Predict the 3D structure of the following.
Amino acid sequence: MRESFAPPETQARIDGHIAAINARIRSKGTTTVGDERPCSQSDVLPAVITQLPLWSEALRGLPNEIVRSALFNARNRNHPRSYFEESEIAVIGGGRITYTGKELRQDDETVWLQLIHLAKDKPLGQAIEFTPYSLCKSIGWTIEGRSYLRLRACLVRMKATSLSVWSARISAGVALSLIREFSWKDAETGGTSRHYKVEIHPSLTQLFQGDHFTKLEWSQRLSLPDGIATWLHCYLASHRDPYPIRFDTIKNGAGFTTGRKAKVRELIEKALQELVRVGFLIDWRIAGELVHVRRRKK
């Protein structure tokens, strides 16, 4: 049985459900053949609790298969977004991702990172609630109307997705939507609610199995410009000691569309400078087509 990390109030509700089930069993005289004991917590919890690992407030977590892919690409957000239909997404290393939905970029990933962070403290599938103000503030966006519209666009975009991830480490495929449910309308008045509700798909826990996920320094992420800098921050953080990486590998993993090598190199160099500025990298160098970096140890 997996250990429960439920908050006290959630655990109290679970215990109450278990007690009610046991009471019904005793009152009806219902037992399992060959087993006259009432239902116990170990019988119920696997079907009730599906929870992500825990990490500190200073960190955010993301599965390695997603970190090392072009699912949340680093293209300029001012360019029109494409629509994908069961499309193969570039993955660095093992694994396979197919995606249906509107193109996702680094601002979507920032929002998703914060949603996962909020969702980790309760069973997945249970709605998390927040205000547009609090979410925008937590991800470093300006507190104004257009940020709220941008946030809602991100949430709607991630709700209308279908993602299939296959990984050899779990010997299976996982199919899910990045956001299972998103609501913002008041059921009684039909007006805009001050609180948003979001549900994260419970199957996401499969991609966090065995600590195969990356923990990001959140303050560093928020200090970086959206794009190749944030993509590299994620990718390099997924390796304890990053090995040299080719320009073409970065280009494919970040979802670049430009074919000009000089432009790709320029963008990568600027991003590496930003990673040094925020304290993530000690230094970097480029030798031929390879990028060498040294991460700062914690």
